[in-house]
C-alpha cells in the first residue's frame, strides 16, 4: 500500500506556538489561514486542529467598507479583518461574503478562497500606446517591476501620454467592482500633468477628458488632491475634490487603495482606503453603452514636466446575474 488515509484536507494538525482560544485564527506554514474550532482552549506546545475552509464571522476593522467578494486580510495586531496588509504579520484571509457597511462591527469571510478576477492587469492582456519620443530607459511603454507597472513622463519638452488599457472588456450591466492600489513616487511636477485611473470605454492619446464613457479617480500634477469624475456620454460629472490627498513616495505607507462600485449604474460609489468619498455626489453610467474596461492614463499637454505612478494592483470582478 502506497498511502493510507489520515484525515480530510481541511483538518490540519500542528503544534501550537502559543496559547490558543476557541475561534482564534492563525496563519499556517503553507500560508493559508486556519481557524481553531475547538470548544476549549489549548496551551503552547499542545497539538491542535485548524480548519482551513468554510465561512466564518470575524471582527471587522472599524469605519471601513468591505464589499461582497473583496479580498480580506487578517490584521494580526488588531485581530480584525481589513482590506489590505502592511509590513507586519498581516496575511490573506479569504473573500468577503456580503457587503459590510462602515458601521458594521463584524463581517463574514469565506476563508482561503481566492477566485481569479475577470480582469487583472498584472496577468491579463493590455494595450499601451506611448505618445511622445520614446527612449531606452526613459519615456516609453510601462516598466514592469515585479507584479507592478510603472508609468512615467520625462523632461523632454513635448506632449507625452502613456496608458494601460485592458484588452478584455465587459458590459455596463455586468455589475463591475474595480480595485486599484497605486503609489506615486514622483507626482506630476506641474499642472500640465494629469493622471486618471478607473473604468473607461476606450482611451485617448492626448486627453483622458475626451473619453466618452468613464469613471475615474484623477490627480493633477503639482498637487496631491484626489478627485473623482464620471461621464456616461450624456451626463458628465466634473472632477470633484474628494478631500483626500495622496502622499508622494514609493513605500507601502504611500500606497493608496481605490475602489469603484458600479453595480448600480445610477449611483456609482467610490472609495479611498476603505472609506466612501463624495457620497453626496451622484456619479452615473446610466446612459453608457460600453463595453467598459480598465484604464490607467498619464499625460502632459506640453513642456518639460515629469511624473511617475506605480500601479501595484488593478482588477475588476463582475457579478453577472
Q: How would you characterize the overall build of this protein?
A:
There is one protein chain. By secondary structure, the chain is mainly β. It has 2 domains: 11-111, Virus Head Decoration Protein, Chain: A; 119-318, Jelly Rolls. Helix content is 0%, strand content 44%. It has strands at residues 11-15, 25-27, 33-36, 47-51, 55-59, 71-75, 80-82, 91-97, 106-111, 119-120, 126-127, 143-145, 148-153, 160-166, 176-186, 193-200, 213-220, 225-232, 236-245, 256-261, 269-272, 275-277, 293-300, 307-318. The strands form 4 sheets. Strands 10, 12, 13, 15, 20, 21, 22 and 24 form an 8-stranded antiparallel beta sheet that branches. Strands 11-14-23-16-17-18-19 form a 7-stranded antiparallel beta sheet, with no helix packed on it.
Give the second-level CATH assignment, the architecture of the largest domain: Sandwich
Strand runs, count? 24
Q: What's the number of domains? A: 2
**SS strand fraction:** 35-45%
Note the total helix count: 0
Order of helices and strands: EEEEEEEEEEEEEEEEEEEEEEEE
Q: What does the largest sheet look like?
A: 8 strands, antiparallel
CATH topology of the largest domain: Jelly Rolls
Shape: elongated
Q: Could you report the average pLDDT, rounded to the nearest whole number?
A: 96
Terminal CA distance: 48 Å
Subunit arrangement of the protein: single chain
CATH class of the largest domain: Mainly Beta
Please provide a brief summary of the model.
This protein has about 325 residues and is mostly beta strands. The protein has strands at about 10-15, 25, 35, 45-50, 55-60, 70-75, 80, 90-95, 105-110, 120, 125, 145, 150-155, 160-165, 175-185, 195-200, 215-220, 225-230, 235-245, 255-260, 270, 275, 295-300, 305-320.
Amino acid at each position: 500500500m502506497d498511502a493510507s488515509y489520515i484525515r480530510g484536507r481541511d483538518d490540519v494538525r500542528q503544534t501550537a506556538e502559543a496559547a490558543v482560544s476557541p475561534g482564534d485564527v492563525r496563519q499556517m506554514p503553507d500560508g493559508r489561514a486556519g481557524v481553531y474550532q475547538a470548544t476549549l482552549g489549548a496551551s503552547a506546545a499542545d497539538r491542535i486542529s485548524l480548519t482551513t475552509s468554510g465561512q466564518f464571522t470575524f471582527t471587522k476593522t472599524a469605519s471601513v467598507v468591505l464589499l461582497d467578494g473583496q479580498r480580506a486580510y487578517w490584521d494580526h495586531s488588531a485581530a480584525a479583518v481589513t482590506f489590505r496588509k502592511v509590513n507586519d504579520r498581516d496575511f490573506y484571509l479569504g473573500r468577503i461574503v456580503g457587503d459590510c457597511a462602515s458601521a458594521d462591527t463584524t463581517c463574514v469571510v469565506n476563508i482561503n478562497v481566492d477566485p481569479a478576477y475577470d480582469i487583472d492587469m498584472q496577468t491579463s492582456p493590455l494595450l499601451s500606446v506611448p505618445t511622445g519620443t520614446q527612449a531606452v530607459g526613459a519615456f516609453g511603454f510601462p516598466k514592469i517591476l515585479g507584479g507592478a507597472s510603472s508609468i512615467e513622463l520625462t523632461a523632454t519638452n513635448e506632449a507625452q501620454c502613456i496608458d494601460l488599457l485592458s484588452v478584455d472588456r465587459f458590459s455596463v450591466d455586468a455589475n463591475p467592482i474595480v480595485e486599484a492600489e497605486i503609489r506615486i513616487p514622483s507626482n506630476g511636477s506641474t499642472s500640465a500633468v494629469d493622471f486618471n485611473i478607473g473604468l473607461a470605454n476606450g482611451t485617448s492619446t492626448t486627453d483622458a477628458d475626451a473619453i466618452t464613457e468613464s469613471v475615474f479617480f484623477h490627480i493633477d500634477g503639482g498637487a496631491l488632491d484626489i478627485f473623482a469624475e464620471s461621464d456616461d456620454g450624456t451626463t458628465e460629472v466634473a472632477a470633484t475634490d474628494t478631500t483626500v490627498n495622496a502622499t508622494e513616495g514609493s513605500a507601502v505607507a504611500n500606497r493608496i487603495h481605490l475602489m469603484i462600485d458600479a453595480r448600480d449604474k445610477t449611483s456609482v460609489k467610490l472609495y479611498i482606503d476603505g472609506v466612501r468619498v463624495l457620497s453626496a455626489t451622484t456619479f452615473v453610467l446610466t446612459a453608457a453603452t460600453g463595453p467598459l474596461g480598465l484604464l490607467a492614463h498619464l499625460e502632459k499637454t506640453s513642456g518639460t514636466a515629469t511624473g511617475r505612478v506605480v500601479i501595484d494592483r488593478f482588477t475588476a470582478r463582475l457579478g453577472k446575474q
